Amino acid sequence: MTPRSVLLDRIVPMLYWLLLAAAVWILLRGHNAPGGGFIAGLVAVAASAALAIVLGERVARARLPLAPLPLAASGVLLALVSGLPALFSGHPYLMHFWGAPLEVKLSTVMLFDLGVFLAVWGALAGFVLALLAAWEEAA
Amino acid sequence: MSGTAGAATPTGPAYVGLLALPVAGFGLLVWGLLHHSLPWALTLEWVPSLGLDAAFRVDGLAAQMLALITGIGALVFVYAHGYLDHEPRRDRLLAILALFMLAMVGAVSADSVILLFLFWELTSLTSFLLVGWNHADPHARAGARQALLITMAGGLALLGGLILLAQMAGTWTLSGIVAAAPGLRADPRLPAALALVMLGAFTKSAQFPFHFWLPNAMSAPTPVSAYLHSATMVKLGIYLLARLDPAFNDLPFWEFSLVGVGTLTAVWAAALALRERDLKRILARTTVSALGILVLLVGLPSPSAGLAVAAFMFAHALYKAPLFMVAGNIDHATGTRSIDHLMGLRQVMPWTAAVAILAGISMAGLPMSFGFIAKDVITSAKAEAELLALVSHATVLVNATVVAVAGVAAVRVFWGRPEFPRARVREVPWSMRLPPLLIALLALEFEFLPALADPLLLAAAQAISPGLDAGVLSASYRFDNTLTALEITLGLGLLLFLFWDRLHALGHRIHWLDRYGPAAAYEHALHGLARLAAAHTRLLQHGRLSGYLRGTLAALLALACVMLWLEAPPLAWPAPPPEQAVAWSVALVLIAAGAVAALTLRDRLALLMASGLVGYGSAVLFLFAGAPDLAFTQFAVETVLVVVAATALRHFRGEAPRLEEPRLANALFALLAGAGVFLLLLPLAALPPDTALSDWFAAHSLEAAHGRNVVNVIIVDFRGLDTLGEIAVVAASLLAALPLLAGLRNRNHAA
User: Fold this and answer.
1) Contact across the interface for A73 and B731, Cβ inside 8 Å
2) pLDDT in tens, B272-303
3) Which of A91, B112, B284, B692 is 20 to 30 A from B560, alpha carbon to alpha carbon?
4) Does residue B446 fall inside a structural domain?
5) How far from each other are the two terminal CA atoms of chain A, in whole angstroms?
6) Measured between alpha carbons, how far is B134 from B28 in angstroms, rounded to an integer?
7) pLDDT exceeds cutoff 70 at B6
8) ipTM of this model?
């Protein structure tokens, strides 16, 4: 194990949540301003990678909402499902709907973008964490 | 094979449910035949934009096939219960058998050629699963793969042929193609289309030179052999040829091909039957021989040939399925199928012996059997068609062999001095005695009461030869021709039977057959394919990163040269808008600095940072050139990459090792590649940008998709399906990489 830095040990766990919050913000603003699921997913991967480098791959893996592969798969599934309402109402698949129940603008597009976010986060975090794990053991 | 040790597999509701399928199917068919006149047709809309319908049509021929599929299917399901009494996976086998049955039902009732192809391939696929059932046995695996490769390759040819025919006829239905056939005579594509269809039918029905897969498929459990590889699936090719026969039987090409290939197959397979010692393989060879006779009969232009096809197809299924079950019973009781070790089984297995005699009589075509009627009809058809003497003599020889094989299967193994201690061998359970007995008795009954089978046979025959007169059936039971032919065949067959062992020894000495036959050619092709793939992989996938890079750049360079050589396009120097000149300069300086640093630095971490600088420089460029989303992504990717790679580099101290590569040549190559890409981009800068798409997206983004970020709207909405595919690929790449990454960790553990 390489020597640990006290400063990083204290800062990075906070940075992790900050980066995830930023990712969610980027995800939600994406429809009207630069951002969206892809970029948000990459930022979340950066958060996971930072955590893994400082506190170890195991900790970062445990902080993911699901294991990497199920996380990526659930993202793809979510995006798949977001197109179904259109199919059931006789429209072409993946045609999106908007509505504002309870004064909040909601849409199936948000579901789709959330799916993109989860797929990118799960898949790339899976790669990064597995590589880091291999290197950690090699060290 | 089912062992005799261990507990019997319990009979659960799954078995009852699966057995109900063929029984219900058969009941439904009988009810339909009694209450509705043929043909039955059903057309459902499928892909209206292509003019493609899911069309089904059941005429006499299809009804006959359906009767075999469901009737023999039900009895095979009962038989399999006894045969696999100690097999824990029995219900799974029956489930695959049921799937196969559905595929067969679909294939013979489909009128749409696309549906026919789909069901056809599904039968090949389920056959693969069934032949490879005993997957611990390498012979079973090889046989399954061979059957799959040959029938699937033929299936591809069939698809091509059917599509060609459909395009020429302007309809996707078989009945439509047959109806339009007179107008297709002059079409130059017709021979190619028919050749492709024949290729599909010949592979499926194991015709020469594709005959060898059928004996090798005998590794399947016996219920499978009795059902798929004698009664139903291998008849599918004959079925399709018979279906198309009314349209093309006056074409010399059609007649010569079918008669030639059919005769060759029948003779060849009959000769090879003499080389076998395994009871199932002997039966399989005669099945191939019978399939050859059927192809020959389909090819005959005379109208009574249709009757002969229908009668022989029926008769063959009714005697061959029980004989396979007899072989299965013997195997089940004694544990061997080699005729060298089987004698005198009559005393311990009287029921099985009775079935064997009944079916054997029919197979030999002796009077008092349905096989006799079939033989009679065939003789009449051949007499009418004025066959070549050679073909005629050949078929007599084939029939003699069939008689001899019937003798081997029904007489030889059951008579003589028993070799087995009586206590060890016992008669099989009732579930294995009744099904073959029922089928054999049915065949016998049709002889005495032909009126039971006549309507179905006639309907089938009229589907093959539309001009066939209804009176021909009873009139064809003349028997005078047949009796003479029968005497010759029986005499020859008896000789073959008596000299079987000596002929076998003779046939066994012909070694060149194993070295140069079609089966050997198949093995050579298979090994050749593996060798080609290995050589090709060694050449291209050598694992040297610099080699990959050189190859990719060389291809790009070659592309650039070809493009510039074909057409010298106008070149233009890309100029930034004046207000962005500073931003572009900053970006270019960053990129150039990164590149120069990467060339001169030796420390790994510094090298990594330098390459990151190139990425950041491009991100700056994107940011100011109006692509903030792209810049955003580039920053994130570059950061994650550098950070992760830097973590890895912590484990490698010191300087990068000196590459053992020609540095000067590499540098020259890199310069050339850079210049080539630069040259490629210059004409692009000269083209006036086409803004039609971006204008449309900009105009519709907010109004139709409620988003102001056009890039994101395109990703999630306008081109949502593309994105769905992309994230599926991203997720799948992790799935594919996980084993490799796990291998990396294991290697670390080992080291």
Assistant:
1) yes
2) 888 888 889 999 999 999 999 999 999 888 77
3) B692
4) yes
5) 7
6) 34
7) no
8) 0.91
Task: Show the domain range for B594.
Answer: 582-657
Indicate the DSSP class of residue B246: H
State both tokens at B248: 């093309």
Q: Tokens 């579901």 appear where?
A: A111
Comparing CB atoms, the residue among B712, B727, B735 nearest residue A30 is B712
> How confident is the model at residue B748, as a pLDDT?
66
Beta bridge pairs of residue B45:
B53
Largest separation between any pair of C-alpha atoms in chain A: 61
Amino acid at B743: G
Does residue B475 form part of some domain? yes
Compute the nearest-CA separation of B111 from chain A (Å). 30
Residue type at B479? F
From residue B336, how far is each of B140, B224, B411, B432 by CA, in Å? 16, 18, 17, 17
Q: Give the residue, B413 or A61, on which the prediction is more confident.
A: A61
Neighbours of B594 (CB within 10 A): 20
Q: Give pLDDT, residue B419.
A: 65
Minimal-distance CA residue of chain A relative to B746: A134
Please give the pLDDT value at position B751: 56
- CA B111 to CA B114: how far, in whole Å? 9
What is the tens place of the pLDDT at every residue in B481-501? 566 777 788 888 888 888 888
Angstrom distance (rounded) from CA B461 to CA B302? 12
Is B741 a domain residue? no
pLDDT in tens, A46-82: 999 999 988 888 999 999 999 999 999 999 999 999 8
Last residue of a domain, one of B510, B536, B566: B510
How many distinct structural domains can be found in chain B? 2
pTM: 0.74
The mean predicted confidence, pLDDT, of chain B is 85
Q: Is residue B506 domain-shared with residue B586, that is, in the same domain?
A: no
Q: SS3 of B43, please?
A: strand
pLDDT per residue as tens digits for the range B149-197 = 999 999 999 999 999 999 999 999 999 999 998 888 888 999 999 999 9
3-class SS letters over B588-645: HHHHHHHHHHHHHCCEHHHHHHHHHHHHHHHHHHHHHCCCHHHHHHHHHHHHHHHHHH
To the nearest whole Å, the CA of B705 is away from the closest chain A CA by 8
Of B637, B708, B712, which has the smallest distance from its Cβ to A36's Cβ?
Answer: B712
Split into its structural domains, chain A has a count of 1
| Angstrom distances, CA of residue A138 to CA of A22, B5, B605, B734, B745 | 33, 51, 19, 22, 8
Q: Which two tokens stand for residue B315?
A: 């008769």
109-128 of A, contacting B, C-beta below 8 A: 109, 112-113, 115-116, 119-120, 122-124, 126-128
HSE of B399, CA atoms in CB hemisphere, 13 A: 28
The yes-or-no verdict on residue B510 having pLDDT over 90 is no
DSSP state of B422: T
DSSP symbol at B346: G
Question: In terms of domains, do B278 and B371 share one?
Answer: yes
- B705: closest chain A residue by CA: A96
Lowest mean pLDDT segment, chosen from A36-40, B26-30, B366-370: B366-370
Residue A1 is predicted with a pLDDT of: 47
Dig out the tokens for A97 from the structure.
């709907």
Residues in chain A: 139
* Residue B464: both structure tokens together: 């093959």
* CB spacing of B647 vs A135 below 8 angstroms: yes
8 Å CB contact of B734 and A46: no
Query: Is the CB of residue B697 less than 8 Å from the CB of residue A20?
Result: no
Residue A46 lies in a domain: yes
Share of chain B above pLDDT 90, in %: 33
Helix (H, G, I), strand (E, B) or coil at B112: strand
CA separation for the pair B531, B678 (Å, rounded): 40
Higher-pLDDT residue of B66, B690: B66
d(CA B193, CA B619): 56
